[in-house]
Amino acid sequence: MSRYRSTLSRHPLTAAVLTGMLLTSAATAFAQDSSTTNLDKVTVTGSLIPQTEIETHTPVVTITAEDIQTRGFTSVADVLQQSSLTTGGLQGGQTSASFTQGAEAAGMFGLSPSYTKYLINGRPMLSYPALYNGGDTFNNISGIPIDIVERIEILPGGQSSLYGSDAIAGVVNIILKERMDGSVLNVRGGTYTEGGGSTFRISGATGFNSADDRLNVLVNAQFESSNPIWGYQRDVTRTTNGNGYTAQVPTNDFLVVNPAAGNAYLMMDPNLCANVAGQFGGTTVLGTRAAGQSCGSIYSPGYKTVKNGKDSAQIYSSFTFDANDSLQLFGDVLYSYEDVKYATGSNYTWWGTASGYGRFWDQTSGQWMNLQRAFAPEDIGANGYKDILNTDRNKAYQVTLGGRGTLGNWDYSASFTRGEYKLTERNFVRWADPINNYFEEHVLGPQLGTRNGYAVFSPNWDAFYAPIPAGDFATFTGYTESQSRTWQNLGRFQITNGTLFSLPGGDAGFAVVAEAGSEGWDYTPDERLMDGSVWGTTAVAGAGHRSNYAVTSELRLPLLDSLTVTGSGRYDAFKIGSSTVDKATYSVGVEFRPIESLLFRGKYGTAFRAPSLSDAFQGLSGYYANGATDYYRCGQLGYAPTDTTGCAYDSVSVFGQRAGNPDLEPITADVWNAGVVWAPLNNLSFSVDYYNWKIKNEVDTLSSDQLLLAEYYCRNGQVNNTSASCDNVNEWITRDASGVLDEIYTPKMNVASQNLQAITASAKYVQELGRFGALQFSTNYTNMIKRELQPQPGDEYLDLLRDPYNMWIYDSYAKVRADGSVGWALDKWTTTLYFNYVGKTPNYLAYAGNGYDYVHSSGAKAGKWGSYTTYNLSVNYRAAENMTFSVMVNNVFNKMPDNQASNFPGTSGTPYNNYFYNIYGRAVYVQAKYEFGPK
Predict the structure, then answer these.
(1) C or N: which end of the chain has fewer Cβ atoms within 10 Å?
(2) Which whole-number Å values give the CA distances from 139 to 114, 421, 484, in the listed order?
(3) What is the tens place of the pLDDT at every residue in 562-576?
């Protein structure tokens, strides 16, 4: 049964674009017949109305299943994170101890992942139950079976007039296969040449079709298992930085400081670390820094994972049934299960007296003291950090049932979607009372009274500078188990008329969509994370639900053969608690074709993001700002905020709190784009598009670094150019009587505004070579022209493309990004070379020195890291009609950001920008694909 009746002749522009989208194992598939071809109307992402034009007023980037295979992409997350539209940094498996280390995120144009609307088969994806960076709702794009993906369509720019809330940066529609004739089995395995990360994947799919072809069923199952990559398996993270602008030093694994003397180090071990020399594989030594001496190892940073281990399985099925000539029933279900394992490392596995005691008085030496003791693999047990991995268990399903058909000149579709995402986080923790009691019993000894409100002890230094006896570690450690879930119900009804009335340029099209649904979020941490039972770890809490409805309409008017105008409008309303938040959005698009091979296009409209459930209902939740710089206390010691290296307060841990706000308003945006598509030949096309956003009312949480920097300026009477006011400093920073940071508060507010401008370009070309096959070239390019942020009303705008400090703060790194491929098909062989290019990005000293003109006392200079290009190579051989073998080499030249280490201090255990680059190195995969059954 065909839903759409009319066909039109395909002109050269459409032919060229279609040609560029195709890359198969047969050389003849590269080139398209230049003769006139009838093309059925289809509904593409970016419009509700079926049409024959592939290029419209809304640019669409399409990544096909063939692109995914030949370019070496290993997952949907890999596809989107390597897109030229992804110019910002992301949290994930490389960012140790982040709130969502076990998830995969992606965004566009440097904006938060939450500003992109993610769809599966045109329906909204479920939100991930845990919060990005502890405060933002987003989609985990990890649990989608890559082998059953038909294509991925990306719509850059604001799209709320069709897709509603969240579609500010753009829309990503992941379209899974709906039908299959026959069956297919895929087996794939691979590993990294530097070690770790080996993976195995098997998937199978089959199609069942009734004899009369009225019933079509597809069933797919995929299983994948991958090992983690550990820091010690890569040179750049095996040790503290040996190539930095300061000398390499061991970590402070056994440290005593005097908080009354600027946290000066005290060496209390008469044996100078000899008793702990066996720790961290026999590498613990006496280390010396400007602040004093401690015991540690240069190898301790390596005991963290930089890529998660994962076991996953997905089952997907879809069906269609033609009840009669005018009604088709349809449905699909996707179930995903993932176990993600990771380790945060010794930097987050330690004990100290600053938390719980504040400080103590050493009766024997007559000094104020604090202790810090990291745990080595030998302390933990036989397998070290492999025995205390964290596990995120994800279970999610989404099911849709519906019907579609025709009534006269009208097409209709009605569906209901139900989904639920459950997350169980099993996290390794240290129990507060047991760990404090253990070290009181073995190290601090009995409390001998108080002094100025602090405890008095006489520590046993032989016990402090000693390995923990076998079995003792387990007495004060264990696991918490936190449960969270999101759920979503959505009913949707659409009517469409592609021939509403005739105009000089063709038939007008009209569509109306009505939606109604509800969604909920419930994050319930293990109560021990909230009541103080756990040492040094906190959690995010909250729960709430909202109902919503929306009405969308679109009208497409081909006024002339050369001119088409399309308008769309949408009204959304959300019932959040006792309040209703509503927003109307619209857009007007224009397509002008002065000749068949040339298209000028543009669109103006509005977009928005409703307050998310976490924005509204997140409870008072805590976090630790680890590695924070106490600029005020460093200033008291004579350090300027531009260079705090060597300051005892350069890396402190401070407890922070944030909370939701039920009175938040929607984030709004004015958006427009304009561009041109030119296809001078049937096998050649170019496109260039300009995008502009003006975003207002953004919900933002103040960064701890900006708040602490504001305190330095305010307390010293200097000009405060941060996003926190001096009143904020007085309200939101708490110190104890001795001046030690006690707590900070960074609330959510409708305060920020952003202005963005970007240019994207693409080119596609296919060249037949006769008996030598055919070549295909394609490339995509993004250039961020402008990105400026106003953190609070009245503040000066921060330049997130040229101000390196704020570029790091807001994860806005790349101004230019591009990717592309060259494919060669000859008989049974297909070879593809894919490249991914990142332009220059600000180096660490440009951030730390707050400018490109900063020069460190060592002579190291602020500036930019050079451009960064990686290459993937694939070879596919069709050995038989039903058997294809493939070899993929990703990152062929083993490119890694190890040259960035010279711009980090010798204390760093992660001397590269781990939010934007990875250190995985070269990967090699082999795959066999077997097709069987009827075709």
Answers:
(1) C
(2) 7, 11, 14
(3) 999 999 999 999 998
